[in-house]
User: Fold Rap1 GTPase-activating protein 1 from Hyalella azteca.
Amino acid sequence: MVKEDLVLDRLYPVLTPQASELISSYDEHALVNSFKFGVIYQGPGQTTEEEMFCNRQTTPAFDHFLSQLGQRIQLKDHKGYRGGLDTQFGQTGVESVYEVFRDKEIMFHVSTLLPYTEHDSQQLQRKRHIGNDIVAIIFQEQNTPFAPDMIASHFLHAYIVVQPLEPGNPYTKYQVSVAARCDVPFFAPTLPCPAVLDAGAAFKEFLLTKLINADLACLKAKKFSMLETRTRKLLLSSLVEDLRLKSNEVFQMPSEAEAAKAEPSGTRFFDTVRKVLSATKKPETAAPPSGPNSGSTSGSGPGAAQGSGGCLPSGANGNKKLPVNGTCQSDGTPVSTRSGAGLSTSGGGSSGGRTPSSSPSSTPHTTPHTRKAFSESGDDSSFNSIDMDGHQAVLNEDSDTGLESMSSAETGHQRALESRAAVLDCPMCGGVQDGLVCVLHASPEVVARRVQALSEDVKKLKGDKLDLLRQNVSLQRDVKRLKEKDLRQASELSSTNREIARLQSLLKEFTTTNQVSAV
Assistant:
């Protein structure tokens, strides 16, 4: 069902069996089953971004809170959702916090578990992960002021501030508060009043639910909604194109781009027929003869012999017949001569004049005013004609199928061959034109060879495509190998820098000791 207010240029039928799978895949893009959240430790009196990201040591209260969120995992052995963390070379730390909640995978970017970079006050390595999250948790050891603008980020839209009330007590309570940007809609569950929750399973379920709903609500903000709309448009365009290509593959139809680039011929029979028809040079027609020796129009008269093709009315109203080729003498022997674009026939040893050519003629799609006319001499001769009954529409209006005209012409031509026991030229186009055989009278072997040649070209192109795909896969492997090498070199460089810093510190201490000893 199409919406009434929907304006479309055309509708395309979806005929591929994979349509339901592709549409389901498009709908499932809106389903999110993996989330990543930042966790920032805010020490007592810390009010700047640099101070919070430079924390290296944790406290038992913070470790207890992390145990409420999820499980500590080794990134090296982790196989689930990694949230952008490195699980191969340890570039993003050794441990992290991970949890599966209601069939949804959650990875936490804990600031103290991410690598600490010496001589970097902003700790960009840590902020690169937490700053790209949408929701973050701020854990306060003590009551310390926090404002969302303390952390400069284009992505962070919501913060959940958690403060333990009794840090040393195993049955501690947490005070929770929420801050979000103005364009973020409300997200459940609602905070109780007062917003104090006991540690345990209920607190974990409340906090994780609040985090997931906050992430989904932030996606409705202006910045993320614009990105989502653009992404949905691209996915929808890709879906339409995939459905069109799959439907064309079912019927072996070329796509619009391939049809525009490729030649009009195809690997199928009808495409070959249309190409040869369009490439065939149309001969000129002859002017209708006048006088007593003009062609027969009623099929009656003294000595008129009916040829094997017959001379039947082309319409139900008894209008003119369509003479095709050849003449028959009174004894039934066919006689025909061909000169240029005209035909002259003779009966009883007399030859008629040549009919001048005046206008071009076409194949069996020819309209009545462009039909070729022939002349004859002698009262005891008549033309062999193609049976045109049932094909009046073909003669009166142009048809684009080419199938009916081809079959009728071949049938009449075969009857003419059987009656005359000789190969005749094509009556409409003169047989061979500029080296191209008229497809209506060409032998099936010629058409088969043409189709086979086109099929071989297609096979060659498919082989070239496979070679390009193999080269692409090989290049992708090389790129992946180079990326891994780059990561290893970066790790070695970081280790080297740390070792250099350690040696410089030792050298400085040694120099200071020598100076004191000298004094």
User: Anything to note?
Assistant: The chain has a mean pLDDT of 72. The longest strand covers residues 34-42. Residues 451-508 form one domain. Residues 86 and 92 are 6 Å apart (CA to CA).
